[in-house]
Amino acid sequence: MSTLNPPLTSGFWERSRHSFVSMMKRDGFGLLALVVLGLVILGPLYSVVLWAFAERWKYPSLVPTQFGFSFWSETFSRADIVAALPFSIVLALTVTLLSAIICLPASYAFARMRFRGRQLLLLSFLATNAFPRFGLYVSIAVIFFRLNLIGTVPGVILIQLVNTLLLMIWIPTAAFQGVDRSLEEAALDVGASQLRVFIQITLPMVMPALSAAVLLTFVNTFYEAQGALIIGLPRVVTMPVLMYSLINSQLVTQYGAIVSFVLWLPSLLLLLVAQRLLRGGYLTAGFGV
Amino acid sequence: MATLDIVHLSKRFGSVTAVKDVGFTVNDSEFMCILGPSGCGKSTLLRMIAGFEELSAGDIQIDHESIAALPANKRPTAMVFQKYTLWPHMTVHDNIAFGLGLRQLSREVIERKVKESLALVGLSGYEARYPAQLSGGQQQRVALARAIVLEPKILLLDEPFSSLDAILRVRLREELKRIQRRLKITAIFVTHDQEEALSLADRIAVMSGGEIEQLDHPSTIYSNPQSLFVADFIGAMNLLKGVVQDGTVRVGEKQLAVPSGKVSNGEVTVALRPEDLVLVPDTQIGTVWKAKIDQVMDLGHYRKVLVDVPQLGDLKIFISKAVNLNEGETISLAPTRYLIYQNGNPPVEVNQQAQ
User: pTM score, two decimals?
Assistant: First the structure.
């Protein structure tokens, strides 16, 4: 796969600078749009990162007047944060694992079997993404209340599982569909058993896409706040939920900024890995199911 | 090394019958081609032999023992597929060694066999490459090596060269023939390319509509096609409508001779190979067609000429390059050999030169 991607050489920056200049000459509006987009996307990030390391930052100064780490030790000595961070990680891992156990076999079935209602079922996983989530969660909360699931860990796991379905079904389904059947037949032909064909031929070929789906699911779940907020409070508090309350109710801006910053780093790394894994073209190849 | 018997074999997909009661024997070390247009059932037949399709009826025997009940991974056959089916996540070495490893051979034996098979297909030293680093032709050579390294009793090839360009196709064809001769392996090669079949096969089975139309040596298939379908499908052919009456067949304005008693009165089709229509002097008597040259196509060592004969339509002829012909010119043509088909019966051959 690595041969498909041109290596990043030192010429890359020169070339991109050259294209930037030529674009500026050719298309002033495009440049304007780029600048606005950059401000909109990077502006908040800039502000959050600066706030996380700011000891003192008063208007009208554009950068903090004093940098330091004193708020970091303060933040991480808070009992709620110390409890929520490991809990969030374990919760996200649990949800991802459960989702994989449920969705991966299902996606194999979607890719390989022809059954009645297959297309409709596959589309139904879009439903959770097609309507406002909040409304969905509120109506689910009503049901969960009767089932005594409000404020419980199983309740939060269930609501977060719903969120993972689309990604964990669609990406692997597309990947399994992308595996040419004759590659499996060729392995059968030389004498491999069905199980060996699956483990040694099919699985390695879908592995990048499956890993990407799992990574994205973990990241999404780790940051999921709406469901956890509605179903989990008051007893179950995840990191993103805590971040919301820190941002909303605390007078100290740095707490929220530091928690956001800490939450970004792993997601940024995992998303970069997932993006590399997905370059195999599985998404484009299979999303026209 | 092995013989293959196909016995009353049928395959039905729902209401569609893909293979209808087919039966033949492939002899030891024989190279058999199954030739037919797409959808004629030839690939289905091959896939049944490999074990990828279940039989609806009939039997498949290798060395007179039925393999019909065996799954694909237990059959002593090996297949080279139409598409490149090397496993993309394995190196050339691992692709070839995969099947050997399943047979619990020692490491040294596997290494030696991988080396030998790669040498056989002319790819020594390519062990560490990945399929994506090979050209299409190289990939099919590796696929061939992967199949023959297992020393199968029957080698199955499903249009293996159809996605390669013309020059490469011819070269790989010659190599395949050489390898098959050297290993004396029994092979079945499915193709829709008659040139491929004619040049490779010891015998050709021409299939149409799920049935075998004719099974013969290539030269016999060409010179004596037993049905109109085969006559039309193999090689270039002029098919002319005619009516038989009183010992002659009337084709257009002219009468052609018919062997007495072999054809009854009524409609027939006369099949004439382009090379069996020869240029004659304008003064010759007998059945001579005056034809106007429509198009002259230079095909290297000979020329294909399309001519127009009044009341008969277009005819194809092959003319030597030594003869000077111009479009628009009128020439005289005489048939030397033709076949007369009537009511689906085997044809009646008329050879003017022999008489």
Answer: 0.78
